[in-house]
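Weekly modeling sync, notes
Attendees: S.R. (lead), two postdocs, one rotation student

Agenda item 3: backlog of single-chain predictions. S.R. asked that every request posted to the team notebook include the full sequence so nobody has to chase files. The rotation student volunteered to paste the first one in as an example of the format we agreed on. Action items at the bottom.

Example entry:
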Amino acid sequence: IGGRGDGPGQYLEPLDFYLDKDGIAILDYGKILHYEQDGEFIESKRTNGTIGPGVKKLNEEQFILVGAGRDTDNLIFTDGEFTPVKSYFPYITRALNVMPINPLYENSEGEFIYRRNFIDTLFSVSNGQFPKPYLLYPMNPLDFLVSSSELTTPH
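Predicted structure, as returned to the notebook:
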């Protein structure tokens, strides 16, 4: 599908993709390329200045983009033309504010789940609404310690 370059149907560095009834869409820096199922190029759409590592299609009129960098929030809901509508989780200035690999994924029930580094909560995201806590997990290393008697005691 496509090839390396900056021309129609070409990409510089594929970051993410999704499949739908029309074919495959590939997220590249600042654009999304659409191909038919047989790999024939259909069109390219700009993501209106949002550059980041992830894209998910909610429905025909709404997408979620994962933003990256100081000038954008980390979770961005867009319309069908990738114009930002709502966004959440602003960039926090700190040395270790890096994006995790695959911060947005779909679970087996079809819900989109978002995670952010250095916080103890996974969030369910849908329809541009404020992300709802989905799962809380401990981040204190002491919460994971097991005593030596627990390791040697048969259950």
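Discussion: group reviewed the output briefly. The CA atoms of residues 3 and 10 lie 5 Å apart.
Action items: rotation student to repeat for the remaining queue; S.R. to check formatting next week.
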